[in-house]
# Entry
Amino acid sequence: MKELYLNGAFMPPDEARISVMDRGFLFGDGVYEVIPSYGGRFLGLEPHLDRLDASLAALRLANPLARETWRSVLQRLIGTPPAPDQYVYLQITRGAPPERDHLCPESTEPTVMALARPIKPRAPTVAERGVTCITRPDIRWLRGEIKSISLVASVMMRREAADAGALETIMHRDGQVTEGAVSNVFVVTGDELATPPKGHLLLPGITRELALLLARDHGIRFLEHPIPLETLRGADEVWLSSSTREILPVTRLDDRPVGTGLPGPLWRRIDALYQDYKARVREGHV
# Structure
């Protein structure tokens, strides 16, 4: 990473500084986005920026940059020529007022930061053996649709998963699946694909939406409806989706196999469609 963007300027990472009074540091008062790029072309840039606007509006923050400025900043960060596969992380906080107070002055200038990092290639073992997850009660706040930087609950859940030798924690509330600590969740029962509906309890993932779009366009039946925890545990297939991990098959859940214990046929089909879509993004055909 040669440079990052901070408050209107590009600079080397070791020169970047923010105030200790920044409300992102003191309160987690801010939002973020993660946008993948393949071959120098962003996948889902506009939906990601739309979601950024929605998160900012929920926190009553104005977007500090115009849409065209965001495009220009993000394109510069991925470089010329760009590295093959990258993601851009951007973060906006409410800024650094002179006093620490839960009520922030409305005139405070926001802090805006963005940087690019490589996307790690998917391990070949994922398609061969899948990944392992655990389930836990959803202990987060009730505004999961906001992509908030206040992520301590997700940090705790990822730690629990790692301690159990798993990749991810799938969460549930009142007997219903919500989402993973850093992912959306899909289940396959028979020939039916299902995912929990959008609402306050989960983040509307851009990869989630793309998976459903690909399913619709290729005749794969799907439903968005509540998924009981027992349905998850008895599913033929379980998937995770996120911008940097794409769509992953879960083959072991709470120390029990999912379905046959191997990546399922519907996952293989949707993954092939997703990889084809990525290839078209790289070639500039999307």
